[in-house]
Amino acid sequence: MTIYTPPGSDGAIVSYQSRYDHYIGGEYVPPAKGQYFENPSPVTGRTFTEIARGTAEDVEKALDAAHGAAPAWGRTSPTERSIVLNKIADRMEQNLEKLAVAEAWENGKAVRETLAADIPLAIDHFRYFAGVIRAQEGTAGELDEDTVAYHFHEPLGVVAQIIPWNFPILMAVWKLAPALAAGNAVVLKPAEQTPASIHYLFSLIGDLIPPGVVNIVNGFGVEAGKPLASSNRVAKVAFTGETTTGRLIMQYASENLIPVTLELGGKSPNIFFDDVSRADDDFYDKALEGFTMFALNQGEVCTCPSRALIQQSHYSDFLAAAVKRTENLKQGNPLDTDTQVGAQASNDQLEKILSYLDIGRQEGARALTGGSRAEMSGDLSGGYYVQPTIFEGRNSMRIFQEEIFGPVVSVAPFADFDDAIKVANDTLYGLGAGVWTRDINQAYRAGRAIKAGRVWTNCYHLYPAHAAFGGYKQSGIGRENHRMMLDHYQQTKNLLVSYSPKAMGFF
Amino acid sequence: MMRQLREQHGPLMFHQSGGCCDGSSPMCYLEGEFRTGSSDVLLESLAIEGVPEPITFWMSASQFELWKHTHLTVDVVPGRGAGFSLEAPEGVRFLIRSRLLTERELAELAG
After folding, report:
1. Is A60 annotated as catalytic?
2. Is the CATH number 3.40.309.10 carried by domain A269-457?
3. What molecular functions are annotated in GO for this chain (chain A) (predicted)?
């Protein structure tokens, strides 16, 4: 067991600066309007640094830097870019523990997750795109004896990326790695709830990237995000967040005729067929852990398995075991490596979750465990903690239909295969899903029948590079986490070449 | 807050969000900034003292189907949501509070 010292305290392995400006053209640049905003840690509720409050002027400056850097960066060979990405990964690996503590402090998540998942996955993501960009090839199509169609990949140029707050570093890397591999320059806006950890990352890796290739503008959505997303100087916008902002970004993109990729969340079903309970063995234990995954990252995951569907024939016993498993979760100081559930990322997030606990009860759902704010003592008393909560109810209830983004799972029984698929698909979203069964034929049929972009089969919450991630229905557009994401950051250049010396004969 | 935002920015509207991160938040924009269409439902034109024109409150029709049995209140809490909602720089966040509609309210809406 290790309890890390809070960043900035004596003996801490990592410290934040007391202030962060924008990162533009490889330098720190104060905001044009000279304003800053406070950044509190959800662990304690107390401010630990202040952040530039960017506006359209700052966005323009970042776009100038990006446009200045994009042509040369776009001409580098895949090998050169691959080397840069690998160096970034190596530098992150050397500083893994520091990055993990920095991110936990800013976001409130448990450091055991950042140590074991967020940062290692981010490192691997750079390595993955360092690899696939070298293996990528264009094509040559022989149209006739004298005519060949060559297809080359070219970068889009300058792209905008708007990052969510639930995995501040990993989500930034999911977008940065393919964009950089493909040869684009980036203007990135972190979420205003978690604006600092990306700067800590760049304090480690900034020297590895040519100035202007990555620019970070902080600030509020309406003041900095909107001018970026609506700019006619970007060739693409990538956004992770919610549906209304997703639509607005698409609307701006339509005005500029540029593409978007959107990841807008879900309400993921996690289906437990009755054969899971056939034996009390390792697999049964794994399935119970799979149920409890709703509390991973305090439920602040777009694919949180927040609807558990359990087959009627083993419903009571499986649910009782799941409640017990959930009650054994250790919630507390996110900087303690034994802690499994930390703090919600912000006060408004806490308030929103509490409002759902309220409407859940009003609709008649029964809290089998949890159901309220978790009161902490000492330094943690000002932080934003919610008890892992299991509600029992019906799929029509709002807690079954809306992404609470907290450690809250809603449970309902199902009768048979068809019923399971019907309930699973009865949602506006289609990002993730889980299927648990010992019958591989049933697993396959269920996985294909669920309308979601990712169906975890006898596992959950794995995010390896090289497994495409993205949504059906209102969950968004595009696929991250796979080499196919390169397509979202590249143009196709076709050279249509005639090797015939003869005129065509038309004129 | 609405009076302050109206004064700073101009006529306002809400669109209720869904999905991840700041999903479930009512997003406040300049009226017309967010393009509504046939996939949206206008729930209410809110009359607020000191605001010259009503503030429209919209939601996507598919989401409305799942919410229509509940009464919504737009509250405001300290916070810092993402998205492009106008109140965020003020250090507050609009938040939806919900309660079930009563039998009488449901009957009135049906009638």
Report:
1. no
2. yes
3. oxidoreductase activity, acting on the aldehyde or oxo group of donors, NAD or NADP as acceptor
